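User: Can you recover a sequence for this backbone? Please restate the input before giving your answer.

Assistant: Of course. Working from this structure:
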């Protein structure tokens, strides 16, 4: 009986000790920022992993955060060659009539795609956004259909657009998580957009019209280079911010902050937490030679096996030893081999669990050797 009491006492003390430690563990894993914003998300841009979320899937009015999707479609058109940054766009009556933030395009005024992107990214110009939307799709209505189609392609569940600008409209909504996904698609697939979003001060119309970035973090937060602010009476103050430090890019989204200062403060706090707690562990770089393989029956005797893309793994600081990688490659390959052909893969493990795979591809093509090639090879050896 005495032994049972001792065991019971030890178990009870253990439970109490565990319960006392639980809040500390919980605080470490899920920080309590006590945000005043209605929703927030912190995301790793490389992996898409969510590091912090609060009301992440709540449908909210996005204000000019909407323009991140518009810029994504604009960048797709630019990078695909459908339009050029040097193209001149004529502002329509409708585009010039947009209220809210604008660069005061006059009906019939011409402005380059480059300057329109600058006006959108820096000054959140509603008129510039509609002008470029019309240039790409013919009408803003057709452009909005493209926006909603893209949202479906990205798998977004809580997004529906009614216009390209974010001006208040019924059934125009998105979520902090969906905006993080759109932002990630924009800056990872079309990093050229950052040349506009990172500008703090600039001008239009040969220096006659000044621009100041509505996203103050690009000036005051180290590593910040985008992306977009938004604010209306309905939406409150919103921000999708991104920053790059030590090879790791993070995306911080806050929706519905009560004032401009707190949206920047809270987005910065999320970024601070991410950079303080995590790091990007570089596994391989695009084009990096992983190994040289022997080639049989080819015009060349060996080939470079290279990484098909950049590969990094997000880890908590101090977890470096938990990352292991396994290279799976044959000892040799048989010609013909085409450049870009998959030869093997890199498998990454974290604490023994697989977390990522990356194809290893041929760095160059090798043609199959013919009879004449063998004779020439033998002759060269004799000579």
């Amino acid at each position: 009986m005495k032994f049972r009491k001792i065991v019971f006492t030890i178990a009870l003390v253990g439970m109490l000790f565990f319960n006392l430690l639980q809040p500390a563990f919980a605080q470490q894993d899920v920080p309590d920022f006590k945000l005043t914003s209605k929703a927030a998300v912190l995301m790793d841009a490389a992996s898409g992993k969510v590091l912090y979320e609060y009301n992440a899937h709540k449908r909210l009015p996005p204000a000019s955060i909407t323009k991140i999707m518009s810029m994504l479609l604009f960048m797709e058109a630019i990078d695909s060659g459908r339009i050029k940054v040097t193209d001149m766009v004529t502002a329509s009556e409708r585009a010039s009539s947009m209220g809210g933030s604008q660069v005061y395009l006059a009906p019939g005024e011409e402005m380059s795609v480059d300057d329109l992107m600058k006006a959108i990214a820096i000054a959140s110009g509603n008129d510039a956004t509609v002008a470029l939307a019309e240039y790409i799709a013919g009408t803003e209505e057709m452009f909005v259909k493209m926006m909603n189609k893209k949202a479906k392609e990205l798998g977004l569940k809580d997004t529906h657009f009614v216009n390209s600008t974010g001006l208040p409209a019924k059934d125009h909504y998105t979520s902090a998580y969906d905006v993080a996904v759109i932002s990630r698609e924009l800056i990872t697939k079309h990093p050229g957009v950052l040349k506009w979003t990172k500008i703090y001060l600039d001008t239009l119309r040969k220096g006659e019209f000044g621009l100041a970035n509505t996203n103050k973090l690009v000036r005051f937060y180290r590593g910040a280079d985008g992306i977009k602010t938004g604010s209306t009476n309905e939406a409150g103050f919103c921000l999708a911010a991104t920053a790059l430090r030590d090879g790791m890019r993070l995306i911080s989204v806050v929706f519905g902050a009560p004032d401009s200062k707190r949206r920047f403060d809270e987005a910065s706090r999320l970024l601070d937490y991410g950079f303080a707690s995590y790091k990007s562990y570089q596994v391989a770089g695009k084009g990096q030679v992983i190994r040289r393989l022997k080639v049989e029956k080819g015009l060349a005797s060996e080939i470079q096996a290279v990484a098909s893309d950049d590969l990094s793994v997000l880890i908590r600081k101090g977890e470096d030893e938990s990352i292991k990688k396994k290279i799976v490659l044959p000892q040799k390959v048989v010609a013909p081999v085409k450049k870009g052909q998959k030869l093997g893969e890199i498998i990454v493990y974290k604490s023994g669990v697989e977390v990522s795979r990356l194809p290893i591809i041929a760095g160059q093509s090798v043609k199959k050797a013919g009879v004449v090639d063998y004779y020439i090879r033998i002759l060269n050896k004799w000579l």
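That completes the design. Confidence is low (pLDDT under 50) at residues 1-28.
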